[in-house]
Amino acid sequence: MRCPTCNKAVEFAENPYRPFCSERCKTIDLGKWAGEIFRIPKQVFEDEDESSDVAADDIENSSET
Predict the structure, then answer these.
(1) Does 23 or 65 have the greater pLDDT score?
(2) Which residues pair with 41 in a beta bridge?
């Protein structure tokens, strides 16, 4: 298998950093997640999107009165 960070060939068995080749590559990957370079996209459904907009408007309008 290949390291997802540097694409170097990696021995999977008895590798404490698997699926990475080293602690360095594992830390680089973690930093990308922490820095939001890697993200899991949120799936928005039409009904949810419309209702959240209305709720946000209601909150803004109620705090102004």
Answers:
(1) 23
(2) none
Dist. CA 54–CA 49, nearest whole Å: 9
pTM to 2 decimal places: 0.56
Secondary structure class of 46 (helix, strand, coil): helix
Per-residue b or e along 6-44, where b marks 16 or more CB atoms closer than 10 Å to that residue's CB: eeeebeeeeeeeeebbbeebbeebeeeeeeeeeeeeeee
Q: Please enumerate in sequence order all residues whose Cβ is within 8 A of that of 43, keeping only pairs 6 or more positions apart, or say none.
A: none
Residue 19: C-alpha distances to residues 9, 11, 57, 58 (Å)? 10, 9, 46, 48
Place of tokens 């209702």: 51
Nearest-angstrom CA–CA distance, 36 and 54: 28
